[in-house]
Fold each of these.
Amino acid sequence: MSRARQIAALAASEPGGALVWLDGGDGRGFVALEPDIEIVADDLEGLAAVEALWRAEPEFPWFGWLTYEVGTAALLGRPPVAATLPGLVLRRYRAALELGERERIVGDPRAGAALMARLERGSWPSGQSWPLGPVEAQVAADDYRARVRQAQAFIAAGETYQINLTQPFVAEWLPEWAGRPLAARAAAVYAALQAATPASMGALLAVETGRPCGRWVISNSPETLLAIELGAGEDGGDLARSWPIKGTRPRGSDPERDRAAQEALKQSTKDLAEHVMIVDLVRSDLGRLARPGSVRAPARPELVTLPTVHHLVSEVRCTLRPDWSLAEVIAAVFPGGSVTGAPKRRTVEHIERLEQRVRGIYCGAIVALTPDGLRCSIPIRTGVADAAGLWLQSGGGIVIDSDPEAERRECWAKMRAFERE
């Protein structure tokens, strides 16, 4: 049995603890089960306690999340808006299995052996069906188009240059799955996503500790907010990198149409301008904690092809100042510019007016702190599963020449991974 099937079986078994299964980018991921410390906070100040423990005992990994509202509260200097999930949850694990070309235990070897024993006992049945019904928008098409036009009015008034506007979706559980444990349903969704539409920063996380867990985060995200590699920068400094995504086309239905979609995206003046705007924002964010002159970004983005869409992606990098702290570096880049727009501070205020709902973990950050550094995803293509179904959001960047209906269709294109014929 493959390792992925063993992990899915463990997740489906109502394992207790607080299971986390990450695809951490560069072919590297993690699975962990039993946390020994949990830090929960309503703001980014909780990061100081996490960092103190991580730096004191860096061999033990930490996993968890930050909600979008925690980031916007810090940005705007106000208390966070109430959301359905705690704003900051980070859990330390005695051991995690690092996944990739060479598996290894990170942390305590005895705790790692216990985790491996749990994994080896798992049995994931072949031929699992898809648990979810059709994805349904929770905002009417006319309403979403009107919100796009309102965003463009803000842009025309000089309030902002680009607004990332999202909308909610839901997929309910199919009747034949409704009686099964929620853990089994969530594991089936994530295992199917990972097999059919793998994403470099995908994740399955238990929201609550213990058994049963009443909510699960399911992420099919391809986007990295921030990666820090200790000692990998200039002159042995710490290297920080971000990969903002901006610019999307749905995959074509045949090879010829798919090539045409790629070319259209690469040659799109609108998408390139939108992309450069966000890259400049990320460069500025990283520059706040960078060694002078170390910030780098490419002249043009790369085209990245995923199972359902094409994207424009750029790598922005720098070497951090020696005295950086976890709270400072997260505050500098969070929330990610690709999911806010520019300028960031004013734009997030307009997002609140337009969307009229909290984003929660969607567009926040899923965090991994390991002995060699930090990795944060931006959880786009991400939802929270509960007894009713999977609650999702999707969006895109609105600029002055956006077509409202095209923007609405782009939201649906990004939901395709959660649809089945």
Amino acid sequence: MKPMPHSHDLYTVAQVRALDRRAIDALGIPGFELMRRAAAAAFASLRRHWPDAMRIGVYCGPGNNGGDGYLLAAMARDAGLGVVLFALPGDLHGDAALARDAYRQGGGLVHDWDDAAFLVDVDVHVDALYGTGLSRAPSGCAERLVVALNASKTPVLAMDVPSGLNADTGACPGQAVMADVTTSFIAAKRGLFTAQAAGYVGKIELHTLSLPESLWEGSAPDATLMQPESLPRRSRVAHKGSNGHVLAIGGEAGFAGAIRLCGEAALRAGAGLVSVATRESNIVALNAARPELMAHAVEGPQALAPLLDRATVLAVGPGLGKGAWGHALWLTALDSAQALVLDADGLNLLADEPHEFQQPAVLTPHPGEASRLLGMPVADIEADRFAAVRALAAKYRAVAVLKGAGSLVAHHDGRVVACPWGNPGMASGGMGDVLTGVIAALLAQGGDAWHAACLGVALHARAGDAAVGDGERGLLASDLFVPLRRLINGREA
């Protein structure tokens, strides 16, 4: 399917409503016509994904999303499909009422969904309950309908937004429809690409409803989706000094694996040289496992100083610990004014001693670390990841990566990009250490903090998807190294 215009632009619900209103008021397109186009796009999607479907169930709410559903049901009936339509309680007004009347006038029956109703056998369910019109959890008979749809094991097409999912934030405060396909209208809603959305949206398709390009003029998106990228081909006269020197700092006793993963990831992502500053007890293991890493026993700031002088970029935190040793190295690294990537205990120490960065800096917290950095509950971080990542970038004057399903990257000027790749298999130890090394390597090769973070997150997630061929369970952080190398060189993984 050819990508729609603006398919990488993400908007808030308020922005999409403003675009909808502008299409009606400024462009003179009647609201009922927009509803008809939405229904036609969704019905075409249904036929494309389930061409053998002969009978569908359509579930309409009391707002405009319900109106979309009534018109889809009418189109399906006219195409010869069997249609069973249930409606939630509530009065319809305006275009939604016109859509219901059009369905009825063609002979369509409307069944009330109440406490006595039950699902009937169909080939596809169509969720037209709430769309963007609900930011709280469904309740009463609506909640019971959502539970029944999710338990039915029948495919579900969601019109615009799976009902119960917050289209602004991706949060799911209660029950929400688990769709196989979501057909989104006019503009992509940012909440469909982060937080809990991955468990509900299925395959997302955007339909701009044949609206003219002028509709989007002067309406900047709130965020954007990453697109596949790789690094340009190297100069034929490049040498190791041309590609930067990463110094990875960490590996308290018992945590050699974290700093080894970070260092090797930096090598695999193209850094010319990678040194490791770690505990003496780790040196033999590191040299044996990955001799290309230049491992140094560093027991305090004085031993770290000459390594800092030779480094281009610092990767600080994997396995660092929060004891006296880790704290001393962390302080020395921050005071060096070197470009750096902070992760793990590098972030936990920052939460204890906040610091506004003057040098290029990338912070890579998961929600728990972000909670400590912002001094707010994890639940509040996850309730609005866009607000949280922007707050992190602004507070520390850095580029912030908020990891998790639908990782977000924010600049302190307010820009945000969302990552559409990644999978649950990546929820395993060491993945963050690899990401830290990748971003540090991209910084060392001349990228600025913003582009290094965006490209690093994208390559890391795409490598994770490429490495998951044998299944999500059991995926190791080191499994990403082979596909990472291919992707960064512009090859298919």
